[in-house]
Amino acid sequence: MSNGNQSTRPNKSSNTTADPLVSPVTPSELADFLGLDYTPADDALLNAHLLAACGWYIAHMNNELLQRVWSLKFDRYPSQGESFGGLSPVNANLKSWIDIPLYPVTSIDSVTVDSEVEATTSDLYSKPPRVFFTSYGINIDINYTAGYPTASDIPENVITGLMMMAGYLYEHRGACEIGNAAKESGAGALFGYNAMILSL
User: Fold this and answer.
1) What is the Cα–Cα distance from 86 to 168, expressed in whole angstroms?
2) Mean pLDDT for the stretch of residues 117-134
3) For the chain, percent helix, then strand, then coil, each to nearest 5?
């Protein structure tokens, strides 16, 4: 519960991309996995289930698949803890770095603070990747590229899990929620997400 002297205000953030989601698994590969007699007429249906599985994986695993450009925005540089006013004001502690919410990150393409180009350093090998700042202003925009260059670069367990999940959605279409598909298909075990999510 906050008191009347608490002065920290919400810091709105967003992480968006204008690039379309593309499945690293093709409809024909999914049809082969399911033992179907593939025809191009099946592409729309099979690809819909693949994209649903890909979207779930990215959102729940915080891992990107094929490379896309993302924009991470903050109203101001993030802090941790609360700030308080009054006779003995206490400032919130600024974070040591900003985490990039997706992995893997192949490049930090640009960083601006209040529309001015900001010089930063980064650690793209940590999970999550991190960006270190030298100034702490407002209207922060980090443009970065996340994901793997080609489908063959994506770990095989992820590709197999996507096919298992998409296959389950296909076979139970109209009678299955996507969260159940991740659990019931066995894809979650291949993705490696934790037991708490499995129990939901």
Assistant:
1) 58
2) 94
3) 30, 25, 40
Please check the confidence at residue 200 and state whether its pLDDT lies above 70: no
Residue 140's DSSP bridge partners are: 74, 113
CB 119 within 8 A of CB 137: no
pLDDT for 148: 98
Residues sharing a CB contact under 8 Å with residue 10, sequence separation 6 or more, in sequence order: none
Tokens 């650690």, residue?
123
> What residues form DSSP beta bridges with 76?
138
pLDDT confidence of residue 149: 97
Strand partners, 14: 73
- Quick one: which H or E segment has residue 188? helix 187-191
Residue 130 CA from chain centroid, whole number: 14
Separation between Cα atoms, residue 174 and residue 166, nearest integer Å? 13
Helix (H/G/I), strand (E/B), else coil: 66: strand
Using CA atoms in the order 180, 185, 191, 193, what is the torsion angle rounded to 10 degrees?
A: 40
pLDDT above 70 (res 87): no
